[in-house]
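Collaborator request, handled under Task 6.
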Amino acid sequence: MKKTFRKIAGAAGFAAVLAAGILAASPASAAISFSPPTIYNTGTTPQSFTTSISGVTGDTLWISAPGANGAHVQLSVNFPAGITCKPFASGTGVGAAIASGAWAPLGSGILCTLTAGGNWTWPGLSYQVKSDGLIPAGTSQNIATNVTAAGTNVESKTAVYRTAEDVTITSPTDGQLVSTGTPQLDGLAEPNATVTVRKGANVVCTTTANSSGSWSCVTTALPDGPTTLDVTQTVGPFASSASVGVTIADPGNTPIIGVAAAGVAGVAALGSAAVFAIRRRKS
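Structure tokens returned to the collaborator:
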């Protein structure tokens, strides 16, 4: 059964729009497309969808971010002359008209109506989306677009505003003694993210997380001693990082002095640091 905006008019209606996001569609007289279909949340830095929308006089365009995390999303839309756009929100109804490119209040949707002309097409229409930074990692937030005619939904489409998983390192653990100069790092990241491992400014390995977000990377040769490895993931414009501190003690390296020469007391005094102070890499 078709749902109409008339049947859910008033504050309760706006609550239903925000909660449902997309209404049951009747035969389409409008068309909506997004490029790209997914953008990544970078907090207060806006990201954009390029959108193509068509309709006829009397149609209304509704843009919203339904669900609990929609309260953390802020929307704006660039629109041409002959269009009027206003923010709407659960409990507050429809606000005053806003300018093209202006931000609706946090958590509000935007409705737009054709005020002049006949059939209309908005090729290259741009939605901007940003957040207050409080959407949990690994969350996909729909950005819902509906075109209605005479209160009845005629076309619906969603794009995705994705908050990427944080990159993590599962192995080795922080402070671990590693018995190889080319350690393997394992961890989790956003699926298909590029993962780069650095020692200081030097890249020591790069890989791509699989479709489940798992990644693994074997470094180039590292010297004996304490080492901090920095891991960065990038996906689209989004980046996050993590670090792990390990101590390299490669048994393949040639000792400068033997343990017997150091003596039991010397070894006890040097402790674990002696492993590194008395070693050098093979030439």
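The cover message to the collaborator said: "The CA atoms of residues 18 and 66 lie 5 Å apart. Residues 252-283 form one domain. Please let us know whether this matches your experimental observations."
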